[in-house]
């Protein structure tokens, strides 16, 4: 079965996923698109044989020729479309954030529970990265004993000089590590703090960049995340888990080692596409397989909700300078891990 | 367009490519299979909705429901099936070797030239490996100046204790480097020698393992290849190009770095699937795209023929202990590089 | 001139330095020793041709055959011996800590200033480590722009099950990073906090191990130090400076890379001797040269005092769980950096 | 006991060793110097308190104030001075080559045997390198099983445009690997060949650079050495031993890893001083200790002779293009390994 996907939002990330479904992975085709900019939606559809353009996301969701929905629109609109897809009984993949606020994410959780089956996957693609999976496998195999500390760095070469706020360093960047550590350690974040190092002079004036975000896991594991969105030199994602008997770290990717002019060098990825392209491929391959099989896989509503709760509290920690606890509710049985 | 592929040969490598076409990459589906063991072919077809089983390769090639042919049968049968596909005017992907002898490969070249268009791709998947492509890109960009020397190592953990001969170290293993260096340096191999180091005691008694195979390129670049098929510790493929201004080497792949018990360690791939899985994916994605577009891409008949000529001479060098020249004929205009 | 060194304290570290002066570096010989355990002092002296044994440190300092004094006794006795050496007008090398309290260190500073010339070097050997010097050189050369953040890890394989307290993780281990960051960034530590991750089960019950120690430099550079004294797997010292334009990290040391059993591995040092042996050699070579030349070099009283102030405040941070500011006084002109 | 060293030859390497004995290592002092350029000898002596200048090497050797002799003069004069030192019954350290020809080296061997005790150490400093020792330790510990193949690269950034001949690539550069592999595998070289890759355009016109030198050890281990004396990018010494169960390779040295401008880089040594400085230190420390103790250590006459025999044959292989056998005589009991 080829899954007929409807795409809401044909911007940069939407187009990248359309390319992925069309040219890179098997199991799906794009049957319909829409966008707040209908002209753009039309241009994208023109390159997709048989794809319809719908005037609204609701129309697209209602289209009987659409088996499953991909939401890659502006974050503030995610809740509305995901709720509509749940109402329509269609599986939906929603790029992060599931909703911009914890309250919005909770409404989706409640709707999905009311619908009685899990229909939503949230776009936390790091769970599909080979490096992080190697960490998790080694951790779960007990290679370094119980985890105690984790050091992360999340560095972007740059963000646009206008429109990117300090809050977004938390909500757009650190949110990936929020989900990552929940998945890696299989437990919730219990408290968070945000530290403000000397800011780079290369960022917009009002931007506090980098930040150090601390997460205290329920078991006491302490995670520090350097989030630096104008790091300049490349897109560099680092992680080291320190356990009782050793450590596990992401290794640099392969390619070529160049020895010239007194230096032996390897490449740092240029951007998230280069670093996480294969993770996105694996994520969508997995999603389309699950849709075709009528099952659910990957991070779901509960994970999106938990990330939203942590984001809220982390923003509070940023604004107050205080350590704040994170009140993640008990995971309902409905969201027990069986499907993952 | 979904390319309907007919697969001749449903052994280990055939099944791996069937899985690839069916589950990993887009653009194709397996429409028909055959095998010298028809029961096995039937079992494989049972897992492929809509796939027919043909009693012979010729029947499969003649099937109007087959757009393109994949030859993964025993090497000695390749020539016959490739010639039949050319006769039928169908595009065909043939795993290496194109033919077990240079004479056989030449017959295919002549048939394809007579047919007037390029229909054949040969399975030299290293041309699709990200690491080798990073080497080639850096080399072509002049990062290390003109190439002078190349060091390669080609290590398998083990080969079966029976049936794997010393000749096969050349024809089955070193053949990959034969094609690789022709592609990397865009020139022919002009001479070859084979050296016999102290053999491992871990191999079958009659096996001379490892070998050092030397290739002298037309421009004088000297390539040494250690081929060691019972290296024990892993599947380890190394390469370093030494240029006038620096060197380029394959880097180790990513994953996790583990620090424990006084060691900091990374993983060596376990086998060719782990090391070259993505290269195979890219190779078949490229082939199916080309088939759908009615074009040709990748290594073709001429490359298969050149590898067969080098293999012949290299086996001669092995048996005589002498340096022997390699008489690769001039590349016909028909095989100019435009299509690649 | 061969410097005649008197050694106060012939325990493990004292004996290691005696070996260094006698067998590894030029410029000195051990002329006299003493120890709280005179029998041990006698045994050590027996292996040193011409070395006298003195009943007390004061006698040793007064010995006209002693040109310079090395204090490697128990930390609580350092102040007394350093003050006596200053009184005697003799140059003295004191292992860290200069004094167990800031008040004691300040008395030494005042005595040295009253004596009118710098006589004291403190044993912060990391300033002599090739790796840290490579970081400092690259930093000072502007290779990564202004520093913003530094990540450190300081891991010992283990500490004795009895007698090693959580406070000592600060005063004995983290003290090295206190001096290091002051030297590296050439500025004072302005505030500190201590975080308590989930403790390892491999340590003594009362020990909170690991700790995360935070230093805020005067310019705002934020330093995080994971100090883990029962890390089990080796003696592992890591550091990464994050600047506006890139990062600088300590590289693993050389030796052999072993590929076996599916792993490619390098060695993690077994202990501080293996990791910092050459730094100690360089440190003492430098000290003996300076003594012979009648000059002063390396970290001195002011650095020992500053470290003591930070240690005091850091212990306060540990006990209260609060961020505390560090009131390092203005560096007197007497301790301007000219001598270093 | 401080060994009083007489130095014959105060050129670049002589001065470097004088600095080493005077400033870096313990146990010796330079008591006398001479040079073919007596003015230079005088200038060097002026910086060495108490050092005499002798008009000839023979005078220096006869000086009763000289305990041991260091020969760092022009290679063609080594034989004469070493023979004189043996006659005088004084221990002598001779930089490589022991003699420019095998016949000359044999005369020294015979003189030393006639003298009845081992007095000569030859300057093969790689035996003192930490990296090679890590390889040897791991090899001797059986970590990778029996050795079968070894790959080496010996790259200098450049040689002077005049005066450096292709023969010298063998006699001055590859000679280090000749001794190295004899020491590493504890067996003789049985045959050698020299291959001529495409030469770099960056070298003097007549220079065939790089070369690939092959050594076949007595047990069949095959060693390939790329010697490239105008490699441009740095001084890069590589080695990998391939055993039945794994491989052992020299690791890159430590220092700093710099991440900037899309690259993660480490430093390649600039020259032999940077790469092998510590090996020279260890070598001379060891020699002075042995002299003081009246014993012999390190590579001796036999090793110098064996290297001279291999050099002769290797030059023959270079000029003829043929594989040639190496007739190293049986090692006399006098040179059994006990002293090493």
Count of discrete alpha- or pi-helical segments spanning 4 or more residues of chain A: 9
List the quaternary state of the chains: homotetramer
| Class computed from helices, strands and strand pairing of chain A | alpha/beta
Question: Largest sheet of chain A, if any?
Answer: 7 strands, mixed
Strand content of chain A: 15-25%
Pair of chains with the largest interface and how many residues each contributes: A-C, 36 and 36 residues
Features:
alpha/beta; 15 strands; six-stranded parallel sheet; homotetramer
How does this structure look, described?
- Four copies of one chain form a homotetramer.
- Chain A is 37% helix and 24% strand.
- The longest helix of chain A has 22 residues, at 272-293.
- By secondary structure, the first copy, chain A, is an alpha/beta fold.
- Chain A has helices spanning 12-24, 38-46, 57-62, 78-88, 102-115, 130-140, 166-185, 272-293, 301-320; strands at residues 3-8, 28-34, 52-53, 68-71, 91-94, 120-122, 147-155, 189-195, 211-217, 222-228, 236-243, 246-250, 256-260, 263-267, 324-325.
- In chain A, the strands form three sheets. In chain A, strands 12-11-7-10-9-8-15 form a seven-stranded mixed sheet, with helices on one face. A six-stranded parallel sheet of chain A has the order 3-2-1-4-5-6, with helices on both faces. Chain A has a two-stranded antiparallel sheet with strand order 13-14.
- At the A-C interface, strand 7, strand 9 and strand 10 of A face strand 7, strand 9 and strand 10 of C.
- Strand 13 (256-260) of chain C pairs antiparallel with strand 12 (246-250) of chain D, so a sheet runs across the interface.
């Amino acid at each position: 079965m080829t899954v007929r996907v409807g795409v809401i939002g044909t911007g940069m990330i939407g187009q990248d996923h359309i390319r992925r479904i069309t040219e890179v992975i098997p199991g799906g085709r794009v049957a319909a698109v829409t966008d707040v900019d209908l002209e753009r939606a039309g241009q994208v559809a023109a390159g997709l044989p048989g794809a319809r353009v719908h005037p609204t996301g609701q129309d697209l969701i209602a289209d009987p020729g659409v088996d499953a929905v991909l939401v890659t629109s502006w974050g503030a609109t995610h809740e509305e479309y995901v709720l509509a897809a749940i109402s329509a009984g269609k599986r939906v993949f929603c790029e992060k954030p599931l909703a911009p606020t914890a309250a919005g994410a909770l409404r989706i959780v409640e709707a999905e529970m009311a619908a009685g089956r899990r229909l939503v996957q949230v776009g936390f693609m790091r769970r599909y990265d080979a490096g992080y999976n190697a960490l998790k496998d080694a951790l779960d195999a007990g290679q370094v004993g119980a985890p105690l500390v984790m050091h992360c760095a999340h560095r972007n070469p740059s963000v646009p000089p206008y429109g990117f706020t300090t809050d977004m360093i938390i909500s757009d960047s650190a949110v990936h590590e929020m989900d990552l550590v929940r998945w890696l350690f299989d437990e919730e974040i219990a408290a968070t703090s945000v530290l403000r190092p000397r800011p780079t002079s290369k960022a917009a004036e009002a931007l506090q960049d980098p930040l150090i975000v601390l997460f205290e896991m329920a078991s006491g594991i302490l995670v520090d995340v350097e989030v630096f969105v104008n790091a300049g030199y490349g897109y560099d994602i680092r992680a080291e888990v320190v356990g009782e008997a050793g450590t596990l770290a992401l290794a640099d990717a392969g390619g070529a080692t160049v020895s010239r002019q007194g230096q032996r060098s390897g490449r740092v990825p240029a951007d998230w596409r280069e670093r996480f392209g294969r993770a996105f491929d694996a994520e969508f391959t997995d999603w389309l397989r699950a849709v075709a099989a009528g099952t659910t896989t990957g991070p779901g509503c509960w994970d999106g909700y938990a990330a939203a709760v942590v984001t809220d509290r982390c923003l509070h920690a940023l604004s107050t300078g205080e350590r704040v606890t994170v009140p993640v509710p008990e995971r309902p049985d409905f969201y027990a891990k069986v499907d993952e």
